Automatic annotation (TrEMBL):
Family: Belongs to the LapB family.
The protein's role, per its UniProt record: Modulates cellular lipopolysaccharide (LPS) levels by regulating LpxC, which is involved in lipid A biosynthesis. May act by modulating the proteolytic activity of FtsH towards LpxC. May also coordinate assembly of proteins involved in LPS synthesis at the plasma membrane.
Topology class, membrane: Single-pass membrane protein
Protein name: Lipopolysaccharide assembly protein B
Record organism: Ottowia thiooxydans
Gene name of the encoded protein: lapB
SUPFAM superfamilies per record: TPR-like (SSF48452)
Residues on Cytoplasmic side: 24-386
A Pfam family: TPR_7
C-alpha cells in the first residue's frame, strides 16, 4: 500500500510535467504548420503571378492539406481548376466546401454559386440548373435567374424561360414583355410544326398579341397561319395592323401584305397603305411592293418603275438602281445581260440583314440572332439601308 502511494506522489508531478511538455510540443508543431500554410499560399500566389498555373495548383493543394479549414484557399483552388478546364476537380473542391458543417452562410452561398459555374462551364446544363435553383433567396439570386434564363433559351424550354423572365420582371430587372412574346411565338411554332395543332398555336399567338401589342412577330406569325388555312383576308388584316402597331417592321411584311391583299381582292387598299408607309419611312422592300402593286393595278410599267427613281432620290441605292436598269433599254443591248449580272452580283450582299449586336449577316431575317443569341437585334432593314 505504502509503495503505491509513494509512486502516486512521485508519478503525479511527472505525468503533469510530461503533459505540459507534450502540449508545448503540440503548440510548437501547430506554430510550424501555421507558418507553413501561408508560405505555401504565397508560393502559390507567386506562381500564379508568373502564370505558372500547374505549380500554383500544387502549392495550393499543399496549403489546403496543411490547413483543411481555410475556405479561401479552397475557393482559390476551385477557381483555378475551373479556369484550366478541370471541371471535375473544381466540382470536387466546391462540393467538399458545401459538405462542411462549419461553413459560414455567406461562404456556403459562394460555394454553391461557384459549383453552378463549374457545371455551366462543363456544359452539364441539368446539374447547373439544379445548382442555380438552390441560389434562390441568396445574394446571387438575380445572377442565377439570368443564367437560368439563358439555359432555358438555349435548350428551348420556353415555359420555364417565361416563368424566369416574369420573375426577373417582377423584381425590377427590366421589361421582358417583348421577350415573353417571342417565347409564345416559339411555342406556337412548335405546336404548329411538331404537334400539328393550329388551334393551340393560334391561342398562343393571340395571347402574345394581347400581351405585347407593339411586337411585330406574333402578328406576322398569326397572319402566316391564317394564310396557310386559306383565310387570306384575315391574314391581310393582321399584316395591315403591323403598320399601326409596329410601323418600323412593315418592310418585313411588305411582300406578304401585297400577296394576301391581291388574294383577297384588296390591291388598292394595300397600295394606299404601302405608299403611306414609304412616305413615312422610305424602304426598299416597300418600294418594291409598291411597284408590284402598281403593275397589278394596271399602271404602265414605265410609270410603275418610276418608284425606284423616287426611292433613290430619297435614299441612294444600288439595289434600286439595278432593278430600275433591268427594264431600261440599253444603247448597246448585247452588253445588258453582262452589266446586269455584275450589278446584281454587287448588290446581293447589300440585300442581307445584319445583327446590330454582333454583326452576323444573313439572307433571312432572324428574331433571335444565331450568332450572339440576342433578341430583336436585327434591324428590319437591308444592309444597304442601315
Ligand atoms: Zn448577333
Amino acid at each position: 500500500m505504502e509503495f503505491d502511494i509513494t509512486w502516486m506522489l512521485l508519478g503525479l508531478p511527472i505525468a503533469f510535467a510530461l503533459g505540459w511538455l507534450a502540449s508545448r510540443l503540440d503548440l510548437r508543431q501547430l506554430r510550424i504548420e501555421n507558418r507553413q500554410a501561408p508560405k505555401a499560399y504565397f508560393k502559390g500566389l507567386n506562381h500564379l503571378l508568373n502564370e505558372q498555373q500547374d505549380q500554383a495548383i500544387d502549392a495550393f493543394i499543399e496549403a489546403v492539406q496543411k490547413d483543411p479549414d481555410t475556405s479561401e484557399l479552397h475557393f482559390a483552388l476551385g477557381n483555378l481548376f475551373r479556369r484550366r478546364g478541370e471541371y471535375e476537380r473544381a466540382v470536387r473542391v466546391h462540393e467538399h466546401l458545401l459538405s462542411r458543417a462549419d461553413l459560414a452562410k455567406s461562404d456556403r452561398e459562394r460555394a454553391q454559386h461557384a459549383l453552378s459555374l463549374d457545371f455551366l462551364k462543363a456544359g452539364l446544363l441539368d446539374r447547373a440548373e439544379d445548382a442555380l435553383r438552390k441560389l434562390d433567396g441568396t445574394r446571387f439570386q438575380e445572377q442565377a435567374w439570368l443564367t437560368l434564363l439563358a439555359i432555358y433559351e438555349r435548350s428551348r424550354e420556353w415555359p420555364q424561360a417565361a416563368e424566369t423572365a416574369q420573375r426577373l420582371q417582377q423584381s425590377g430587372h427590366g421589361d421582358f414583355a417583348s421577350r415573353l412574346a417571342h417565347y409564345l411565338c416559339e411555342q406556337a411554332a412548335t405546336a404548329l410544326v411538331r404537334a400539328k395543332d393550329p388551334a393551340s398555336a393560334r391561342t398562343l399567338l393571340q395571347k402574345a398579341i394581347n400581351d405585347a401589342p407593339q411586337a411585330a412577330r406574333p402578328r406576322i406569325q398569326l397572319a402566316a397561319l391564317l394564310a396557310g388555312q386559306g383565310d387570306q383576308a384575315g391574314a391581310f388584316e393582321l399584316l395591315e395592323s403591323v403598320q399601326k402597331y409596329a410601323p418600323q417592321a412593315l418592310p418585313l411584311v411588305a411582300a406578304e401584305l401585297l400577296r394576301t391583299a391581291q388574294a383577297s381582292g384588296q390591291n388598292q387598299r394595300a397600295l394606299a397603305l404601302l405608299t403611306q408607309s414609304h412616305e413615312e419611312f422610305p424602304s426598299l422592300d416597300v418600294a418594291e411592293a409598291i411597284v408590284q402593286a402598281e403593275l397589278a393595278a394596271g399602271t404602265p410599267a414605265e410609270e410603275a418603275r418610276q418608284w425606284y427613281i423616287r426611292h433613290m432620290q430619297q435614299e441612294p441605292s444600288l439595289i434600286a438602281a439595278a432593278r430600275w436598269l433591268a427594264h431600261e433599254p440599253f444603247a448597246h443591248e448585247q452588253a445588258h445581260p453582262t452589266v446586269q449580272q455584275s450589278l446584281d452580283h454587287a448588290a446581293r450582299p447589300l440585300a442581307r440583314y445584319r445583327c446590330a449586336a454582333c454583326g452576323f449577316e444573313a439572307q433571312a431575317y432572324f428574331w433571335q440572332c444565331p450568332g450572339c443569341q440576342a433578341w430583336d437585334s436585327f434591324p428590319p432593314r437591308r444592309i444597304e439601308e442601315l
